[in-house]
From TrEMBL:
Family of this protein: Belongs to the AAA ATPase family.
GO MF, any single term: ATP binding
SMART domains named in the record: AAA
Keywords tagged on the record: ATP-binding, Nucleotide-binding
Protein name: AAA+ ATPase domain-containing protein
Keyword Nucleotide-binding: yes
Domain AAA+ ATPase residues, every copy: 87-219
InterPro entries: 26S_Proteasome_ATPase, AAA+_ATPase, ATPase_AAA_core, P-loop_NTPase
Length: 300
């Protein structure tokens, strides 16, 4: 079945369009001492260099426009400063899991040419009184030394609503300290917080962000693009019916569809075939539907 002209156009753009801002030869910054948690002896952050661009992201035009605006502002720091303005540096990405928040952060890192710093909250949280706040301070001291793109993933862990009666005093102190550190931050790194549970965030935390971007579940057009993008490594059989796949995956995240495509490809390859069939894809959709039912604790 032939794809509509609108989707074909987007596929060609994704496959051939080159991002002029993408830097293939990123310069590594001088290595600094990674901050560690003194209780467990684990690193508080993971630093990596990424090589992604916007062709890797299937998202709404709204999301891409917001991300590109952030890039333009952070590439124009000197120009903005002549008018007494600053770029948006504190960004909140929220929405359902598997919708592209982490990938978007890595794309911003790649295009800006900044090392990517992933904050490890499994190391940040401490059982010692006051140590969690100290760990967050160590992270802020570290990222203030160079230009980074910093991702605070699962941000709700340390920025929960202080009015929650089930939270103890230590979490409230952590939130107070976090707000203070965000207010006092004067470095040039791009700070990104990501959460799947934005309703849990403390009201005061929201005001600390220069930009808030909501990542929704992919619409029908995006789901069609995802199927095409991630099944493109092998030939598709004549019975390829993208309309059926798009209809069957309403409410699925981009991550869900990537997993469907990977499962269909593995089934094809391990069966020693070089063509993915409608049966392969339908089997993978059914398998992912069962997985989602288990995760959501709903009846199969």
């Amino acid at each position: 079945m032939r794809l509509p002209a609108k989707i074909i156009k987007k596929i060609r753009e994704n496959g051939s369009k080159k991002e002029t801002n993408f830097q293939k030869n990123l310069e590594f910054y001088p290595k600094r001492d990674i901050p560690y948690d003194t209780e467990k002896g684990l690193p508080l952050v993971h630093v990596e260099q990424n090589y992604f661009n916007f062709n890797d992201l299937v998202a709404s035009d709204y999301v891409k426009e917001k991300l590109r605006n952030i890039l333009v502002e952070n590439k124009s720091v000197d120009l903005l400063s002549t008018y007494g303005l600053k770029p948006k540096q504190k960004i909140l990405l929220c929405g359902p899991p598997g919708t592209g928040k982490t990938l978007s952060s890595r794309i911003l890192s790649s295009v800006l040419g900044y090392p990517f710093v992933y904050v490890r909250f499994d190391s940040v949280l401490s059982s010692f009184l006051g140590e969690t706040a100290k760990n967050i301070r160590r992270i802020f001291d570290f990222i203030e030394k160079e230009n980074y793109v910093v991702l605070f993933d699962e941000f709700d862990i340390v920025a929960k609503n202080r009015d929650d009666k089930y939270e103890h005093g230590e979490i409230k102190r952590v939130v107070n300290n976090l707000i203070q550190m965000m207010d006092e931050y004067e470095g040039r790194s791009l700070l990104i917080a990501a959460t799947n549970h934005h309703k849990l965030l403390d009201n005061a935390v929201w005001r600390r962000f220069d930009e808030i971007i909501y990542f929704g579940l992919p619409n029908a057009e995006s789901r069609a693009l995802l199927f095409h993008k991630y099944l493109a490594v092998v030939k598709r059989d004549d019975d390829y019916d993208y309309l059926s796949y798009v209809s069957s995956t309403k409410g699925f995240s981009a991550f869900d569809i990537v997993q469907i495509c990977q499962s269909a490809l593995k089934r094809t390859i391990l069966s020693h075939r070089n063509v993915v069939t409608n049966a392969d894809i339908e089997w993978a959709i059914k398998d992912q539907t069962i997985r989602k039912s288990i995760v959501n604790k709903s009846d199969l």
